[in-house]
Amino acid sequence: MSDTIDKQPNTKQPDAAPAARPARGGALLGDEVFTRHGEGPPPRNLAEHAYFSVWDLHAYYGESYIVQGVSFQVREGEILALLGRNGAGKTSTLRAIARVDEPAVRHGEIWLDHKPLHAMKAHGAAQSGVGLVPEDRRIIQGLTVEENLQLAQIAPPVGWSIERIYDLFPRLGERRKQEGTTLSGGEQQMLAIGRALARDVKLLLLDEPYEGLAPVIVQEIERTLEEIKRLGMTTIIVEQNAIAALHLADRAIILDMGEIVFDGTAKEVLDNTELRQEYLAI
Ligand SMILES: Nc1ncnc2c1ncn2[C@@H]1O[C@H](COP(=O)(O)OP(=O)(O)O)[C@@H](O)[C@H]1O
Ligand SMILES: [Mg+2]
């Protein structure tokens, strides 16, 4: 396919995609679509047939080689937990999927609902249904809760109505006239998720939604994510609170130093003490 990203940078890049390490426990990318025979990336021609798939993704910050040949897929309606230690490359992978400028994707393909995101910039990816809820939430200063949500709906395709978002997060409805940046951390997280849903999202990317929040607020957000799950939203969740993410997720992948070291069910990770201790320190 001619729209594969394979820019030749001025500087060094891997001549060939490095072979993925063998899986530890679970089946690495082992399902009916990406069946692996030996090592190396899965066949790219199958990547576009999954609902969401990343194929042999390599991404860089300047010359720093961070995402090192990542491949995985997500089925429609599935929740995937993307786990790994601090600095493993989780945020970078989400940012690459959302097609923000950094890290720069130099090789690989990203497909959502048969559309090639790798050929797009952030604006196109968002219009095609990628909803990134970044770690720092990015609530817009000087705007009320409601204005933050309205701003998300300024360009089509529009997703949930604002009233529906208030039904999911009643606290946001109560504070609709309050300036967004004056909300508590948990409420800002709700607003960030609400803002993603205000667009027509096909793939929700949550980067550490529980970070820095009190346990009672984490539970409240967990309940809304359960609700979003029931509605069939395809989601990738990155979380340091791996246990909470694994309880929500159907499947999990573990990143280590920019490579996938495990791909399997959430239950397999919960049941595998050795794997959790080695890569998640839990
Ligand atoms: N803007 C950046 N410029 C250079 N290196 C970065 C940048 N952001 C992250 N990194 C590096 O990329 C690696 C992966 O970071 P990140 O994707 O944020 O990891 P995680 O989200 O798993 O904690 C780390 O070594 C980090 O230092
Ligand atoms: Mg991160």
Topology, element by element:
Layout (H helix, E strand, L loop, with lengths): L4 E2 L45 E10 L2 E11 L4 E5 L6 H8 L6 E9 L2 E2 L5 H6 L2 E4 L11 H8 L9 H7 L1 H5 L10 H13 L5 E5 L7 H16 L3 E5 L3 H7 L2 E6 L2 E7 H6 L1 H7 L3
Parallel strand pairs: 4-9, 4-10, 7-8, 8-9
Antiparallel strand pairs: 1-5, 2-3, 2-5, 5-6, 10-11
The site of adenosine-5'-diphosphate has 12 residues, from strand 3 and helix 1.
Question: How is this structure best described in words?
Answer:
The chain has 282 residues and is α/β, with parallel strands linked by helices. The strands form two sheets. Strands 7-8-9-4-10-11 form a six-stranded mixed beta sheet, with helices on both faces. Strands 1, 2, 3, 5 and 6 form a five-stranded antiparallel beta sheet that branches. Helix 3 packs parallel to helix 6. It starts with a strand and ends with a helix. About 11% of the residues have low confidence. The protein binds adenosine-5'-diphosphate and magnesium ion. The site of adenosine-5'-diphosphate has 12 residues, from strand 3 and helix 1. It comes from Salinarimonas ramus. This is ABC transporter ATP-binding protein. One of its GO terms (molecular function) is ATP binding.
- What profile does the largest beta sheet have? 6 strands, mixed
Low-confidence stretches: 7-38
Number of helices: 10
Residue-averaged pLDDT = 87
- Beta-strand percentage range: 15-25%
Number of strands: 11
**Roughly how many Å apart are the termini?**
42 Å
Tell me the radius of gyration.
Answer: 19 Å
H/E topology pattern: EEEEHEEHEHHHHEHEHEEHH
Please estimate the helix content.
Answer: 25-40%
Bound small-molecule species? adenosine-5'-diphosphate, magnesium ion
Shape descriptor: globular
The secondary structure category is alpha/beta
Q: Strand arrangement, largest sheet?
A: 7-8-9-4-10-11
